[in-house]
Design a protein that fits this description.
The complex is a heterodimer of chains A (114) and B (111). Chain A has no helices and eleven strands. Chain A is an all-beta fold and 114 residues long. In chain A, strand 9 and strand 10 form a beta hairpin. In chain A, the strands form two sheets. In chain A, strands 2, 4, 5, 6, 9, 10 and 11 form a seven-stranded mixed beta sheet that branches. With 111 residues, chain B is mostly beta strands. In chain B, strand 7 and strand 8 form a beta hairpin. The relative contact order of chain B is 0.34. The chains are: A mainly beta (114), B mainly beta (111). At the A-B interface, strand 5 and strand 10 of A face strand 4, strand 5 and strand 9 of B.
Chain lengths: 114, 111
């Protein structure tokens, strides 16, 4: 079974530029999550989708971050404009269902904002 | 405030030297406690889920246990390939049932 796919794996941008990340979850997984992981910390949830609807985006900085999940499968996370403090690993995860469903993570996209 | 705290932050062991990692949680209405392994440059890899106090799960040299306040990840006779960061996370009966992660324990097993 294929795992969660993410691209790109690495991205370096200047502050105030825009960047977008892509995620393809495990086939059949209805729930998709985007996490931000700062070096030395555990992942922090940014947004959670159930199919193509947003379940929780309470920790998403909506003035600069946006995310969508078209057709309930792939998802994109965008940052516009980027700040220095956005430098982190952005992880996508998926689960079969919400609640107790085990979340499986992709390899992440490492973002460096200069 | 719901929190997950892991200790120690870092642990160095000799190959074959057994030890335990701790994960304490102060969440109301725990619905599940998860352990993940994260290698450098990779995403977290799922290890175990524990749902109720007294539950235990084992996989090779790893054994996870759960009490009402904390979880332990016991590593028996570790090998260098067990070196990684071990993350625990809790799902609680709060909004959206999201995973709340600890900061992890960085384990190094020396040959």
């Amino acid at each position: 079974e294929a795992g969660v796919a993410q691209s790109p794996r690495y991205k370096i941008i200047e502050k105030r530029q825009s960047v977008a990340f892509w995620c393809n979850p495990i086939s059949g997984h209805a729930t998709l999550y985007w996490y931000q992981q700062i070096l030395g910390q555990g992942p922090k949830l940014l947004i959670q989708f159930q199919n193509n609807g947003v379940v929780d985006d309470s920790q998403l900085p909506k003035d600069r971050f946006s995310a969508e999940r078209l057709k309930g499968v792939d998802s994109t996370l965008k940052i516009q404009p980027a700040k220095l403090e956005d430098s982190a690993v952005y992880l996508c995860a998926s689960s079969y269902n919400r609640g107790r469903g085990t979340q499986y993570f992709g390899p992440g996209t490492r973002l460096l904002v200069l | 405030e719901d929190q997950v705290t892991q200790s120690p932050e870092a642990l160095r062991l000799q190959e074959g030297e057994s030890s335990s990692l701790n994960c304490s949680y102060t969440v109301s209405g725990l619905r599940g406690l998860f352990w993940y392994r994260q290698d450098p440059g990779k995403g977290p890899e799922f290890l175990f889920t524990l749902y109720s106090a007294g539950e235990e799960k084992e996989k090779e040299r790893l054994k996870a246990t759960l009490t009402k306040k904390e979880s332990f990840l016991h590593i028996t006779a570790p090998k260098p390939e067990d070196s990684a960061t071990y993350l625990c996370a809790a799902i609680y009966s709060g909004s959206a049932r999201q995973l709340t992660f600890g900061s992890g324990t960085q384990l190094t097993v020396l040959p």
